[in-house]
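> example.struct
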């Protein structure tokens, strides 16, 4: 097969160099004569690698020592529930900012474990903008404020970290983690399913202030308790060894690319180029999101005539541009431009879009 560009929303493209290295190392990892998947997570080789991945991530994202780094499982969805289990006590409330599908789901899944206060929502605007900060009804006694910096389906993104007046901020960064510089100190907990910007599915990365993890008071099994995972170096039980390894390769790749500042700049330019192709199409293509809240990671767009959708998808695939079909809830198209999607892929897509519009005017 010739070169293809993968715009999947998740599981998503991985850097080619990462896959090539994993391929080279598959049958003989680290001089062991075996693949990384086939050995004990308690062995010297694996524990050394695991520690190195954490050290590399700490350096890449300047993670302070009073924050734990956890390598968990269950997808971001499991943590929608586990976060209130750990961060809220009996009778506590938590504030949720709902600016898209995932934030809404996080609030619903938290409800059995904490009194959920939807402090702001843009559902009434079909999630085409962010709820203005001045209208948020934050409760200073809330256990935490939860938000979704980038809404993967709706294509809206916060470009600044909101102030919460000292209440710990919990962020579901599944679709924008490590895509731009990150000021960890602004957050209580950052968590992300790995399958968009970090590695394969089945791994969840969490960066959490240690004092917050010690808060859990309700009775629960150890496997749900973040403090237990932290105390056991994320090896309370068998971790996702393959995911941990691939995340490590991706983190090294990010460092080699120049780190998060360079990635942020590259991602900004990629998104600008695609939005320019949409906005410059004279209405042929359209993105309905408030320009100030447009996502740099997920760009949904529609064609002026929905009857052309199937043809657009067939022709784009034939041109090697994959997974552009929009989420079923919204229809239309969506191009996801995560870290591993190179600028050439965006140029190829923008060129195809111009050509398609010219041929099917
Ligand atoms: C994909 C995604 C999720 C769901 O992740 P799972 O790993 O499938 O549970 C949650 N939040 C956001 C922002 C996402 O993009």
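> example.seq
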């Amino acid at each position: 097969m010739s070169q293809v560009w993968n715009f999947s929303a998740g599981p998503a493209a991985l850097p080619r160099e990462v896959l090539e290295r994993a391929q080279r190392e598959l049958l003989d990892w680290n001089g062991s004569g075996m693949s990384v998947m086939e050995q004990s997570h308690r062995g010297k080789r694996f524990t050394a690698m695991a520690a190195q991945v954490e050290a590399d991530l700490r350096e890449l994202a300047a993670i302070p020592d009073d924050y734990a780094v956890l390598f968990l499982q269950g997808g971001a969805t499991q943590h929608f529930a586990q976060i209130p289990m750990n961060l809220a006590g009996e009778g506590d409330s938590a504030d949720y900012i709902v600016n898209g599908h995932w934030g809404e789901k996080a609030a619903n899944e938290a409800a059995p474990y904490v009194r959920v206060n939807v402090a702001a929502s843009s559902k009434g605007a079909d999630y085409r903008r962010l709820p203005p900060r001045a209208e948020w009804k934050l409760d200073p006694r809330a256990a935490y404020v939860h938000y979704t910096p980038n809404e993967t389906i709706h294509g809206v993104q916060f470009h600044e970290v909101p102030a919460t007046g000292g209440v710990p901020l919990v962020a579901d960064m599944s679709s924008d983690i490590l895509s731009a510089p990150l000021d960890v100190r602004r957050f209580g907990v950052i968590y992300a399913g790995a399958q968009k910007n970090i590695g394969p599915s089945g791994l969840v990365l969490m960066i959490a202030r240690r004092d917050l993890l010690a808060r859990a008071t309700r009775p629960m099994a150890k496997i749900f308790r973040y403090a237990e995972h932290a105390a056991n170096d994320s090896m309370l039980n068998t971790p996702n060894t393959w995911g941990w390894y691939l995340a490590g390769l991706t983190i090294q790749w990010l460092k080699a690319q120049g780190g998060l500042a360079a990635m942020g700049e590259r991602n900004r330019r990629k998104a600008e180029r695609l939005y320019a192709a949409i906005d410059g199409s004279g209405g042929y293509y359209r993105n309905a999101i408030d320009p100030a809240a447009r996502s740099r990671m997920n760009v949904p767009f529609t064609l002026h005539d929905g009857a052309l959708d199937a043809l657009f998808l067939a022709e784009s695939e034939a041109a090697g541009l994959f997974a552009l079909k929009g989420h079923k809830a919204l229809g239309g198209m969506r191009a996801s431009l995560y870290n591993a999607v190179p600028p050439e892929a965006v140029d190829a897509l923008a060129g195809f879009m111009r050509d398609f519009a010219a041929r099917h005017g």
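> remarks
Residues 79 and 280 are 40 Å apart (CA to CA).
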